[in-house]
Amino acid sequence: MLTNRTRPRVDIVWPVAATLVAAGALIPASSASAAPAVPVPSAASSAEAALATLPVKGRAPKTGYERSQFGQAWTDDVTVADGHNGCDTRNDILRRDLTNITVKPNTRGCVVLSGTLADPYTGKAIAFTRGSTTSSKVQIDHVVALSDAWQKGAQQLSAEQRQNLANDPRDLQATDGPTNAAKGDGDAATWLPPNKAYRCTYVERQIQVKVIYHLWVTAAERDAMNRVLSSCGATTPAPAPAPAAPAPAPPAAQSVYYANCSAARAAGAAPIYAGQPGYSRKLDRDGDGIACE
């Protein structure tokens, strides 16, 4: 078994966004990748300052939202970090967030076969094994959910900018599959990670992404973010907003059918994990539990 090729781990650093605010300018979403981090007095205070710059509006209608509005899922054809490196975005994030990984031979070190995730959302260690019944145990979360982004400014972005957003490592986190499903498209007012120790970082990352991609927040979302940030570094954290009610169960898998992967992508459904509506073994050629990768 091959081990993953040597590559530096990618860390999510809040001061990138803080630097933007301090400079009075935002990085265009089409080139939002590498900006040198500079020391700042406090990540939480920088995040609070950045949050204060975000417009506060109601949600725009969800009309017109499809996953396909953000480009092909996990495409490498982006201009953010790790774009055009020859590996799809899902595997880029697995290699970044997992440890002790092994990779599939003859894939240029791209395809992750196994590893261990120290899940920041739950605080649990999760063993990952690529396969039809196991791959979905570790999923890639959009820290700012794409549906949420669509309703808060992404409709005004170009197709290239939306594709960058959907594949930007700063907006992506490997996490526990059921926890990711429970989040759905919730924002900070309706869902926060169960692991309270990670909530400050989680909210800081959401603010960073919204600054970079010119998105807005709702009043309830802003207030929830401020409550979290006010507790950062405190001995006794302030009460967090109540988590959202559990997401409704998805329709039975057999109620959705795609003749081929082109049809699944046209519907904005790809990739499809085992157990999700529309999954079938005929669409999963390598039998790893992920169809239409």
Automatic annotation (TrEMBL):
InterPro entries: Excalibur_Ca-bd_domain, GmrSD_C. Residues 281-293 have a biased composition (Basic and acidic residues). Keywords: Signal. The keyword Signal applies. Residues 169-188, 274-293 are annotated as: Disordered. Residues 1-34 form the signal peptide. It comes from the Bacteria. Residues 257-293 form the Excalibur calcium-binding domain. It holds the Pfam family GmrSD_C. PANTHER family: AMP-DEPENDENT SYNTHETASE_LIGASE DOMAIN-CONTAINING PROTEIN-RELATED, SECRETED PROTEIN. This is Calcium-binding protein. It comes from Gordonia jinhuaensis. The lineage of its organism: Bacteria, Bacillati, Actinomycetota, Actinomycetes, Mycobacteriales.
